[in-house]
Design a protein that fits this description.
Blueprint lengths: L1 H28 L4 H10 L6 H11 L5 H13 L13 H36 L4 H15 L2 H15 L12 H30 L2 H8 L4 H38 L5 H11 L2 H29 L1 H6 L1
Helix pairs in contact: 1-12, 2-3, 5-6, 5-8, 5-10, 5-12, 6-8, 7-8, 7-10, 8-10, 9-10, 10-11, 10-12, 11-12
Length: 312
Amino acid sequence: MKGLIATRLMQLVAVILIVGTLSFALMYFLPGDPALRIAAGRYGPDMMDNAISDMVRAELGLDQPILVRFLSWMGDLVRFDLGHSLVTGAPVIHEIGLQLGYTLWLAVTAFVLSLVIGPVAGAIAGLFPGSVYDRVMLLVAVGLRAVPPFVLAILFMMVFGVTLRWLPTAGFGGWENLVLPSVTLALGLAAMSSRVMRDAMMGVASAPYFIHARYKGLSDRAVVMRHGVRNASLPVVTYLGLQMVYLVEGVVVVESIFAFPGIGHALVHAIIARDVPMVQGTALAMGGLFVLLNSVVDLMCLRLDPRLRRAA
């Protein structure tokens, strides 16, 4: 256990260094003048001229050599100082703290929904392989995984927001604003986890210990819950770690479409405004979130499989 935690901490440091360096380099080499973008964001396009952009450039040190700016940023990062937003002037860590809370609500809700939908549907299909239900679930899973999240999001907005007017399509004012974004993310996650669970459950159902449990006279429910679900869950939980990439990517897209005030939405706006500290801060937060979620998945695997606990 201690080895796992130490490994994850080292990975977190590596992710922070790599993501921070890449985001700094990408923002530097983007075409266009960042001072003009920032001046437009502060004072509006109508008030912007060369004098204002020069003032912004000198104020923020954008006229400094790239190496000086990079070393200065790395020094601040070592002191856990992410700087201030170039547009709003607010501390980056304060902005990220607010936005990360919304994103965690969305990510956790989508993750829980995907666990409720995908593994349950896949387990039933694995117990009845080749049935009509199994074939229908295959078509549904392939269809949901093939459709990009932004298409699914727009479809839900048109049906449940615009046509039926059941749910809001933008912003955040309560639980109802979580429904459409979280379902959009959850269906993509559930599509693949249902197929992994289906194959795992089909293998478990043909295992000798599963058949022997039936011969002992246990009810179908007891056999499935005691000997089926737990053994079939391990590959699903392992696969969920890989799906964290889809979740982090999906958060950026879905938050932007639904105008959800999370960290993905903030990242897109920071890139457009050339707000380098905000881009670096949000990228670091998303990289750290990815490592954290994978650590949770590893701990769940240790909990499910005693062999992994002994090896750890």
